[in-house]
Amino acid sequence: MTDSPIWRPFTQMKTAPHPPKVVKGEGIWLELADGRRIMDCISSWWVTIHGHAHPALAEALYKQAIELEQVIFAGFTHEPAEQLARKLLTHVPDSLKRVFFSDNGSTAVEVALKMAYQYWQNQGETKRSRFIGFAGGYHGDTIGAMSIGQSSSWWQTFQPLLFETDIVPFPATFDGDGQVEAKEAETLDKIKFLLCQERHAGIVIEPLVQGAAGMRICRPQFLQALEHLAHQFGVLLIYDEVMTGFGRTGELFACLKSATSPDILCLSKGLSGGCLPLAVTLATEAIYQSFYSDDATKAFYHGHSYTGNPLACATGVTSLALLEENPQLFQSMEALHRCYLERYLQGHPKLEQIRTCGTIAAMEVKTSETDGYFNAIAPLLKTHFLQAGFLLRPLGNTLYLMPPYCITSDELESIYQVIRRVLDTL
Ligand SMILES: *Cc1c(COP(=O)(O)O)cnc(C)c1O
User: Which residues does this entry assign to the site Participates in the substrate recognition with KAPA and in a stacking interaction with the adenine ring of SAM (predicted)?
Assistant: First the structure.
């Protein structure tokens, strides 16, 4: 079909159409080689929080590139990493004190899992080796991250390679859900039963919103109850905020919005403002202290070639400054979503389970098929939207919006108008 040698991510190469070439990005717009302009309604896989080719990020990148582009991070440090680490700590719950750098969301989670596991090993609690995760959870595509995720049929193939975890139901909710308290109680009971066995190192959750599972939302109350259980049983609470971080939920972090404090917090995606791959895993002082020893074997032996890359850190510092200067950009989007949902989509016969969380809006498109991610409606909708000039990429039959924060109210309205138009033609 194409003479490109590139084997693309999450793509059945035989049936996928040849992808359009993007030649320029500006704000919410992507310009294609054939001259078309399309609106990026999903922040290019949830990373581009400030919009494309942001001048302040470009300038930070250039300034850093002509000073120091990269240096080994074992045995050396540099100002962008020091600044970013300090700045991040001013925005997260007080109990988080230490910052471990890596390169992407999957590595942030791998680091969290290894850190949590070794935390117990270092204290001689060798029985605490299992993790609790949530059905539908997505934490990345590396082996450890897949083990704690196991969300969909994507990785059935790899099942024999994954380590064993205990997966409990995620109490997903939506507008008008009458069952939410019962679902939460059931999950909490299951977790309590597991924790009684005293062999768990930690609980891993995407707080408030499960992303890849289809923007499934849980209540802050559930996280508060989960935190209570984790404390009661002395097990580590690990938040994967790779997607929810940096304003997505309407607050800078889901832990702030839910007034809960994890022991370990994973961040990536929006961390560099969507410019460069970068991740951090934040930990409490107690976790750090369990590694802090005269005994060399108690150190955390983990690192990547590009750990703490100065270019990525410099864009991270600037991105965070942009968020500090304009918090209303992500704080006000939920009200706009709600307004346009009501104006264009409420009660649409093709839709159900409409929900919003901060900058994210999601809904289920009714189909006769049940096979989640591989639902045929997804590529069909995607093609319709692309033809109309909008980048929307449904997860199975879940249609969602996750635009860059620089989108204007009128531009956001135009997405709802096109969704309405496309749904009416189905
Ligand atoms: C995207 C994502 C990851 C994986 O991040 P990558 O940078 O793609 O490796 C992990 N956790 C969550 C919640 C994510 O949304």
Answer: 10
Beta carbon of 103 within 6 Å of any ligand 1 atom: no
Average pLDDT, the chain: 95
Q: Compute CA distances 151 → 155, 156, 211, 283, 310, whole Å.
A: 8, 10, 11, 25, 34
Q: Of ligand 1's atoms, which has the minimum distance to the CA of residue 142?
A: 9
On whether 303 is known to bind a ligand per the annotation, the reply is yes
- CA-nearest residue, atom 6 of ligand 1: 105
Q: Answer whether residue 371 shows pLDDT above 60.
A: no
Q: Is 206 touching ligand 1 by the criterion CB < 6 Å?
A: yes
Q: Which residue has the tokens 């109490």?
A: 171
Collect all residues with Cβ–Cβ distance below 8 Å to 224 and sequence separation of at least 6. Answer: 258, 259, 260
Instruction: Grade residue 228 by pLDDT with cuts at 50, 70 and 90.
Output: very high
Q: pTM for this one?
A: 0.97
State pLDDT tens for residues 106-119.
Answer: 999 999 999 999 99
Residue 1 has pLDDT above 70, yes or no: no
Q: Give the residue carrying structure tokens 């074997």.
A: 297
Write down all domains in the chain, each with its CATH number in brackets: 20-49+378-426 (3.90.1150.10), 60-325 (3.40.640.10)
Say if residue 402's pLDDT is above 70.
Answer: yes
Question: Known binder of ligand: residue 43?
Answer: no
Please state, in angstroms and rounded to a whole number, the distance separating the CA atoms of residues 81 and 68. 12
Whether ligand 1 lies within 6 angstroms of the CB of 359 is answered as no
Pocket probe mutation, ligand 1, options 10, 49, 110, 138, max atoms within 8 Å of Cβ = 138
